[in-house]
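Ticket #207: bound-state structure for zinc ion.
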Amino acid sequence: MSDLPTAENVLAAGGRLAAESARYTGFGWMRGTSGNLSEVVTRDPLRLAVTASGLDKGELAATDVAVVGPDGAAVAVDGVEPLVPSAEAGLHARVAALTGADAVVHVHALSAVVAGHHWPKGVLLRDVETLKGIGRLAHDDEVLIPVIANSQDMVELGDRFEAAYDPRTPAVIVASHGLYTWGPNLRRARHVTECVEWLLSYAIAIR
Ligand SMILES: [Zn+2]
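RESOLUTION: The complex was predicted; output attached.
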C-alpha cells in the first residue's frame, strides 16, 4: 500500500529533527553547519524528512526541513517550502532502505574520525558494558564498527556502506569524515550515537 507524505507529517518530523540537532550541536558533534539528521516519513514510496543544507544545526526551526526520495533528490510536498536537502541525504535514504531504520543520524564527532584513522579496517570492541547500549552483549561479543572510505559521490558511498553493513551493528564510520548511526526512531538513534561515540572515545583512550 502506498501513501504520500503530508505537510503536517513533514513539519512534525522537522520539529523533531530541529530538537535533536540542537542536542547534537550541544555535544559538539555538529560543528559549523556539519552533520544532518533524517526521519522516514513514508516507506512506499520512500520519503525522508532531512535537515536542510547549510544551516546552523543549533538554530533549526521545524520548517528547516527538506523531503527527499530514495536517491536523496528533493521531492516536492504541498505546503512545504522546497529547501535544498543536505548533500548527504542520498546516504541517509540508502541507510533507511537497507536497514529498515526510520531515523538516521550523521555527525562529525571527532572520536569517529580519530578512530577511523587508527583502525581503517574497522574498530573492534568487546567486553565493555556500553556495548549493551547498541544492542550487543557486554561479554564475549566481538563487535566491529565498520570504517568505509569517504566519497562525495553518494552512490559510491552507499555501495561501500552496503558492502560493510552488518545488521547487528547500527553504526558505520566514514573515514576522515564522521559517523552514521540509525534506529527505529530519533530517540533510539540518539542513544546509539551517544554509546558509539563513548565506545570510540574509550577505544582511543586505551589504545
Ligand atoms: Zn558529513
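RESOLUTION NOTES: Residues 7-206 form a domain with the L-fuculose-1-phosphate Aldolase fold (CATH 3.40.225.10).
TICKET STATUS: resolved
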